[in-house]
Every structure is written in C-alpha cells, then in structure tokens.
Amino acid sequence: MPTPSASESAPVVVKISPVAHFAVLLLTIGLLSIVLAAPGWSALLLLIPVALSTMVFRYRTIADHDGVTARTLLRSETTRWDDIDGLRFGRGSWAVAHRRDGTEATLPAVTFSTLPLLTAASDGRVPNPYE
C-alpha cells in the first residue's frame, strides 16, 4: 500500500494574517467616537468592524493534491487542478485562477509570495516563480 505524500495528507491553508484584527480594532475605536457622540442609529456603524473581522477570519484558500478551495464570506468554491488553466494577478493583490471553461475564481489571501505553497500542494502543477 503506497504511503501518501505530505501534500496529499496535509492541505495547505493560505489565509489573511490574524494581525489584521488589530486594524479592525483601531477602526472600532474610531467608530466608537461617532457612536458615543451621536447615539441611536449610529450604533449600526459598529456592524462594519464585525463584518471586517468576520472576513479576516473566514477568507482563505485551501489547496491539496486534488484541487483548490476558495472560501469567501458566504460561500466556498472548489476547483480541481486539472480544470485550472493558469493563475494571474490582476488589480488586486490576490491571485485569480483562470479555468479552462473561461471563468475565473479569486483565490483569497494567495499572493505572489505564497505561490511556493501552492506549488507544493499541487505537486508542481502551479509553477514556483522563485525557481
């Protein structure tokens, strides 16, 4: 019985740094000055940091031997490596997977510097730009 390789047994998870919650905390402190100065409807402004913190916690890309899963705030989308034609970096800093059927999927938190992680997880199907 063959032993699974490291990339088959342990998926690679690329996510937003938890330090981003610190920026959300600073925004919350700033919004509190507005909420305390004008109570009432302005308390709804505190929903913004809650949403941002949820995004920091939820957004991630999970790559394993079979494919890649892009997880956003409300959904997850899995694409097999064989269905991906290539990766590109557009206006945003996150990678975009171009599929063979012409559609695209954003890979949250995948930057140029994290591409070697995808190379390892995909067994070389994603080229390592540093080699």
What this model shows, in words?
The strands form 2 sheets. The protein has a 4-stranded antiparallel beta sheet. Strands 5-6-7 form a 3-stranded antiparallel beta sheet, with no helix packed on it. Helix content is 31%, strand content 25%. The longest helix is centred in the N-terminal third of the chain and has 18 residues, at 20-37. The model has no long low-confidence stretch (mean pLDDT 90). The chain is elongated. It is α+β, with helices and mostly antiparallel strands. Helix 2 runs antiparallel to helix 3 (47-58).
Could you list some keywords that capture this structure?
single chain; 131 residues; alpha+beta; 4-stranded antiparallel sheet
What is the fold's blueprint, element by element?
Blueprint: H1 6-9, E1 12-15, H2 20-37, H3 47-58, E2 60-63, E3 67-71, E4 76-80, E5 84-89, E6 95-99, E7 104-107, H4 115-121
Antiparallel strand pairs: 1-2, 2-3, 3-4, 5-6, 6-7
Biggest sheet architecture: 4 strands, antiparallel
Overall geometry comes to elongated
Q: Which structural category fits the helices and strands?
A: alpha+beta
Strand fraction band? 25-35%
Low-confidence stretches: none
Give average pLDDT, whole number.
Answer: 90
- Straight-line N-to-C gap: 33 Å
Strand line-up of the largest beta sheet: 1-2-3-4
Number of beta-strand segments: 7
> What is the helix content?
25-40%
Radius of gyration: 19 Å
Instruction: Count helical runs.
Output: 4
Secondary-structure element sequence?
HEHHEEEEEEH
